[in-house]
Amino acid sequence: MGGGIILQWISSHIGIPGNEEVDAFANSALFLSEHHSPLFLRNCKSLIKTKFNDRRKLRYNNITAGKRWECILQDENRILLNFSRKIRAACFVDGP
């Protein structure tokens, strides 16, 4: 294969008070030797899938917070999905 991808991220702290020391560290990192870590495609896919699922779960948790049906998205309550539609609907009927 012979191809490679090099990822290098150095955050910018320009204009943020109190971060001069961090800027100095970031700038000094530009002159460090490169570190190569092989990452196989299957590992990349797994990392991306995990990150995607974590973000999706966080997004749905934020969207559903305080809603009556919030509980069906929580892992400990997923058993509700195994019940019939009639039983699931009964769980969310407003009481007297």
From TrEMBL:
Alphabetical list of InterPro entries matching this protein: RNaseH_domain
GO MF entry, a single one: nucleic acid binding
Highest taxon, organism lineage: Eukaryota
Organism: Caerostris darwini
Name of protein: RNase H type-1 domain-containing protein
Domain RNase H type-1: 1-31
The organism's taxonomic lineage, starting at the top: Eukaryota, Metazoa, Ecdysozoa, Arthropoda, Chelicerata
